[in-house]
Write a structure and sequence with these properties.
The protein is of the alpha/beta class. It has 2 domains: 81 residues, Methyltransferase, Methionine Synthase (B12-binding Domains), Chain A, domain 1 (Orthogonal Bundle); 120 residues, Cobalamin-binding domain (Rossmann fold), CATH 3.40.50.280. It is 58% helix and 11% strand. It has 9 helices and 5 strands; from the N terminus they run ααααβαβαβαβαβα. The chain has a 5-stranded parallel beta sheet with strand order 2-1-3-4-5, sandwiched between helices. Helix 1 packs antiparallel against helix 2 and helix 4 packs parallel to helix 5. 40% of the residues are buried. It binds CO-5-methoxybenzimidazolylcobamide. CO-5-methoxybenzimidazolylcobamide (B1M) binds next to helix 3, helix 4, helix 5, strand 3 and strand 4. The site of CO-5-methoxybenzimidazolylcobamide (B1M) has 37 residues, from helix 3, helix 4, helix 5, strand 3 and strand 4.
Amino acid sequence: MSSSLETIYNAVLEGNAPGAKAGVQAAITEGIAPETILRDGLIAAMGEVGRLFEENEYFVPEMLVAARAMQGGLALLKPHLAMVGAAPTGKVIVGTVKGDLHDIGKNLVAMMLEGAGFEIVDLGVDVSPDKFVKAVMEHKPQAIAMSALLTTTMPGMKNTIVALEEAGLRGSVKVMIGGAPVTDGFARQIGADGYSPDASSAVRLAKALTGA
Ligand code: B1M
């Protein structure tokens, strides 16, 4: 692994936000592909943070500072991940479902969709079915992308689909879902239009579903 990728990895693990930014800047300057910086530096480190949490070596405060360090690095990487000058291809509402405060994956999905030319309405975290419904009424998107990182909050995806049906909106909007515990089988089970395991496949899925 290149030394700047190692710097990024270690800085995220240590919750060292300035170090993560410096590592990302160095990697960009070295000409390392943004996708590699993301996958082998930032995302790899968060995977390890999750493992350490499971092993009771890290606790919530460590996860939190690691997340802040990752967000700092991501912000620097954003212009390099986004394709410049892509024509508008449609509108997508993104949000993390009710009860769930994890937003890094959701932000990454939003960032990549934006880079592919989609207009993004980001509802943030802890988004109730009612809030998704109101946003669909207001913004009339082609798709919504819901994220869940907790097994306990995944039912919020199904609840949102039901709420869209009850509001008579289900036929007018495609529903995409994702997040670490989410699977293709779960997507089919709850009647979503598609599942994607990561941000780049979320772009492919959004394009396929919206005909962009
Ligand atoms: Co939390 N947390 N966390 N956490 N956290 C996990 C998810 C966990 C797996 C850790 C573990 O045990 N190994 C575990 C969940 C267990 C479970 O439910 N099965 C967990 C837990 C238990 C908790 C708390 C309950 C801890 C506690 O309080 N005791 C608590 C819950 C708070 C709440 O939400 N109500 C909690 C809190 C937190 C922090 C706030 C400290 C922090 C989040 C900060 C933030 O997001 N701003 C945090 C973090 C950082 C994590 C881990 C370590 C990292 C998550 C992350 O950002 N990954 C995580 C462990 C892990 O995932 N290995 C963990 C990087 C990110 C790029 O990946 O989000 O998977 P990800 O997104 C990917 C794909 O999933 C996909 O694309 C992204 C890019 O490739 N994707 C989509 C995501 N959303 C999509 C939507 C789409 C498509 C693709 O739409 C179409």
